[in-house]
Amino acid sequence: MNILDCIVVGAGPAGLSATLTLGRSRKTVGLFDDGTNRNRVTQESHGFITRDGTKPHELREIGLNELKKYPSISYFNTKVTEITKEKGNKNYFVKTVDKKEFIAEKVVLATGLQEVFPIDSVREYYGRSIFSCPYCDGWEMRNKPLIVIAEEEEYMLHMAKLVYNWSENLVLITNGAEISVEGALKLEKRNIKIKTEPVKKLIGVDGYLHAVEFASGEIIERAGGFVVPTFYRPTPFVKQLGCEMNENGVVVTDGMGRTTQKDIYIAGETEKLAPSSVTISAAEGNKAAIAVNADLVSERF
């Protein structure tokens, strides 16, 4: 049985950052990841100082290589399937898909999120010509003929206004959803076209969008765009471990990653149930690790 001070589930920016900080704090840490991070389809990461334009898998490899300097850190390329705590025992028992078992005093959940798209075929273009974050990819799409795909008016208006900052050649696609007269007028004042017809198919090659065909047969040429997905946590641990959430599904914390469940910490997109930048996720991983180390030090002093 492997006994650790802390396990970190998820090797995205939040998990890597948390693991690094804990390793440098002389704690024994197990970092677990199964390679299903949602940014694996992204061609470049942007907005992270000193690493602007670096491919996500390269950023990950740089992070993993940095961890090798710290002998108390172990990396496991596997999926965590179970995290349990026996009554009267302060430790957590962790099992992986390959039947390995671990014991840890603390757990950091940094498993990120996964997307559900309003149009299934968006995934064929996602990360190459259709994106979800203008701050990450708006610069590369500037001045191109773009689309915004969203099915709820709040998000239609928000994303259209935001993307307009990078390109004024913009078409809002609601895929059959309605938009209010007031909302439509706000966009039309900026010459943003609105298409409420359902989408028949997206047309392109090798992940690069060329056009959109609607149910009516109309085709409009577009070079890419942005989509508003819905998000879900890919693991059940937040609920299984009894972490309190608010009415929006956001995990309740103390601002340092401590959840309402003792010895369970959370960082990155997993906490907010919303997308986050690499920079913010890494910072939140650092904060959670500081909380873990502070608690361990206090409890053992």
UniProtKB/TrEMBL annotation:
Question: Keywords in UniProt for this one?
Answer: Flavoprotein, Oxidoreductase
- InterPro entries linked to this entry: FAD/NAD-bd_sf (IPR036188), FAD/NAD-binding_dom (IPR023753), Ferredoxin-NADP_redctase_2 (IPR050097)
Q: Pinpoint the FAD/NAD(P)-binding domain residues.
A: 5-285
Essential cofactor(s): FAD
Checking PANTHER family in the record gives: THIOREDOXIN REDUCTASE 1-RELATED-RELATED
Q: How does it assemble?
A: Homodimer.
Kindly provide the name given to this protein in its UniProt entry: NAD(P)/FAD-dependent oxidoreductase
